[in-house]
Amino acid sequence: MRRCSASGTKLPPGYMGIPFLGELLSFLWYFKIARHPDDYINSIRHKYGDGVGLYRTHLFGSPSIIVCTPSANKFVLQDANNFSSGWHNEIVGTTSLVAVDGDSHIRVRSFVVKAINRPDSLRRITLAIQPRVTTALQSWVKKGRVTMFKEAKKVTFENIGKYFASFESGPVLDNLDVLFKGLIYGFRVSPINLPGTKFQCTPRTLTTFLFHS
């Protein structure tokens, strides 16, 4: 029989692992070392069956539920009343698109959609970024061999800087690119606010980023 919670609600199948660490070591092995995150999910599904696509575990110091089927994910993502986003609000801000839920999310999202996803907006964006993309393609031809992922990220960041903040290519934009990467790392780490951790350093990176912007 499945173990029940204090309220009497049945929990999904799964394993809570060892105290405090839970299944974190296994999780990190698949995601960081083996680089096969799907194998982690598949191992759970093979062990406990597909069921409703929910599995309990313990990750990053907290009891967790892993959701891994389309129907279950759809239910979670569309139920803003019971499930909220888990972004670090001290990094992205309390009114950021990824941090707000419900009506606030709909309102902020409408502003973004109107700015970048309407036909007239897309035409303006295309005309604005076309010269920079053309120049980038020509430079790639001259180089002969390029790392597509890095080059595509570079030209994308340059276009974003130009379109939204009127930044031209140069040292300032290059410095912002480095700082932006630091912010991205802060999104992905555990919220452990201890000296020397990436999470603890991220607010300072954000302050520097905003200062240079």
UniProtKB/TrEMBL annotation:
Protein's GO biological process: brassinosteroid biosynthetic process; brassinosteroid homeostasis; sterol metabolic process
Sample GO molecular function, one term: oxidoreductase activity, acting on paired donors, with incorporation or reduction of molecular oxygen
InterPro entries: Cyt_P450_sf
SUPFAM superfamilies hit by this protein: Cytochrome P450 (SSF48264)
Keywords assigned: Iron, Metal-binding
Keyword Metal-binding part of the UniProt annotation: yes
The protein's name in its UniProt record: Cytochrome P450
Taxonomic source organism: Fraxinus pennsylvanica
